[in-house]
Amino acid sequence: MLYRSTQLKNPTRERHLFQTRSIIALLFSLLLMAILISRMFYLQRMQHEHYSTLSTNNRVSVQPIGPTRGLIYDRNGLVLAQNLPTYSLELVQERVEDMDQTLEEIGKLIQVSEDDLTRFRRELKRRRRFEAVPLRFRLDDREVALIAVNSHRLPGVDINSHLTRHYPMGDLTVHTLGYVGRINEKELKSLDPSNYAATTYVGKLGIERNYEALLHGEVGYQQVETNARGRVLRVLERTPPTPGQNLYLNIDTNLQRVAQQAFGKERGAMVAIEPQTGAVLSLVSVPSYDPNLFVNGIPLKTYQALRDNRDQPLFNRALRGQYPPGSTTKPFVGLAGLELNQISTLDSIACKGWYSLKNDDHRYRDWKKTGHGTIGLTRAIVESCDVFFYDLSLKLGIDRISSYMAPFGFGQKTGIDTGGEATGLLPSREWKRRVRKEPWFPGETLITGIGQGFNLATPLQLSSATATLALRGKHMRPLVVRDIETPGSQQRLPVPPTLIGQVPIVDEGNWWRIERAMTKVVHDEHGTARRISHNLPYKIAGKTGTSQVFSIAQDAEYDAEEITKRLRDHALFIAFAPVKEPRIAIALIVENGGSGGAVAAPIARKVMDRHLLGDNTTTGNQ
Amino acid sequence: MLLSDASSSHGLFRRLHLDPPLLAGLLLLAGVGLVILFSAANQDEAQLWRQATRLGVSFGVMLLFAQIAPDTLMRWAHWVFAAGLLMLIAVLVFGDTGKGAQRWLRLGGFRFQPSELMKLAVPMMVAWYLAEKPLPPRLSHLFIAALIALVPTLLIAKQPDLGTSLLIASSGIFVLLFAGLQWRIIGIASVLAVPAAWLLWTFGMHDYQRRRVLTFLNPENDPLGSGYHIIQSKITIGSGGTYGKGWLNGTQSHLEFLPERHTDFIFAVFSEEFGFVGILLLLSLYLFIVLRGLYIAAQAQDSFSRLLAGALTMTFLIYVFVNIGMVSGLLPVVGVPLPLISFGGSSMVTLMAAFGILMSIHTHRKLLKD
Question: Which residues in chain A touch residue B275, judged by CB atoms under 8 angstroms apart?
Answer without folding.
Answer: 44
